[in-house]
Amino acid sequence: MKGKRMIAGWMIFVLTGALLFSSNISSAEASEAILDKKQSASDLKTPVVIQISSDQQETEENLIKEPVFKTHADTEESPYGIYTNDYFYNRLSGNEQLLYNRLYVICDDLLRGEDDAEVLTLDDEETNEAAQYTLTKPAQYSGMTAEEAKELAWIFQNNNPQFYYLGLVQVITETEDGGLIQIGVLSEFANGAERKAATEEMFSAVDSMRQKVMSQKTDAAKIKAAHDMICLNTVYDNEDPDKDMNQNAYSVFVDKKSVCAGYSEAFAMLLNSVGIDAICITRAGDELNPKDDPSHEYNAVRSNGIWRLYDVTWDDLDNENEYTETIIENPEDPEADPQVIRTYKTGFNYDYYGITPEKAESYGENSKIHHTPDSFYNKYLPDMSVKTESGDKTDAAPLFRLYNPNSGEHFYTLSEAESTMLAGIGWAEEGVLANTKKTSEIPVYRLGNPTNGGHHYTVSRAERWMLIGAGWNDEGIGWYSSVEGTPVYRLYNPNDDGAGSHTYTTNEAEKDFLTEAGWIYEGIGWYGI
After folding, report:
1. For residue 350, what pLDDT is reported?
2. I need a labelling partner for 457 at 20 to 30 A (CA). Which of 96, 196, 268, 330 fits?
């Protein structure tokens, strides 16, 4: 009893480290100071654009005039295609796609090869001295202005972060039928042998983090793992936010010190590599050479068919020494040393994690400005605004559910003809599972197993491509999911590796019955109306 009374009589205080050590500022102040530093800095650097005459351009023999494939990320020619996606490419016009492909081929050759960068020597008009620029080979464009080519090259560079060696120069040569464009190569990576060594070092670090992301079971867990690892392993470069080397993913994976461009491009690399679409968006005041306007780079990520805003830079608080202390004193023995329990905090938060632009605006005018995309991005960007469903039944299509008593498979289809055909050969009709959207931004993919005849349905792009890679047949988009509405529960039978291993239901009683019988509940597969 005496022991119990003593424990009960102890007093517990929770203090920050700053209260115990007057030399430290408070954790809240430190966090606010770090965020203020990031918000006041225009840490995204944009290219210096140099326009030259055709007689200064002597690389016609190196010009790539025709692309060697139609979609860059799907090519099997390069192992680095997994670090990007075709989101922007699929939204480009034919002429824009040609330029995009040419830039990709040129940059991928530099990444995989050991050629030195091109060298262009020009006279500096201000100093009257010769200036040398290290560049990619020129890519030809047509059917667009030099300004449009410049903007597209900038989008290309930000959304192909595997080309970490690209610098902050664009050289444009206008011709009668269009022009040529070259992107700068950072001097640190201009030498082919040195770039090869840097590539090996960087992608070794990338693969280490990628394996940890891949080990997560759901898309949501993968996104969180990538976000948290970048925050924990990267320090915002307060010392020199203007240097060119911190404007790429290399600065995150190797130097572990970066600014917004490096944070966002590293985040995109990790997610794209595991099949989750992630794009980079810039704010440079509608000019690639901003003056007083704040400039910034952040991400949009598609999860379960919905695009949301992520800003890993502003989520990373960099408070490596932030902690709380729990001090436990024993009032029955004032002379005794108190027990001190120190708990270190993560140094990051989730204020800008999977939010809408409306939410970013609610944080204040500064946040709104930094997360307003450059106008030339707008025509390509997904809708990340708050979505609501009207429940309009005229936009509904019934999803039929059938059961095969021989294989144990439940089958789902929008086609009444397919449903009738299957019923005619012995399948049991189970009615309409739910009404689905006729169209939305969230496709539900249908895949067929050629071994056992079973089918699988998923909104996950990553799961779709994983199954295709494992030999499943891609049967396209089966139907579309609502953003919210009637949940369709997904369950898995761990004791059945055949056609009936998965089932989907809107009936909570059926979900609970199957769970009690040993099925694993895997969450909401999609939403009906």
Report:
1. 81
2. 268
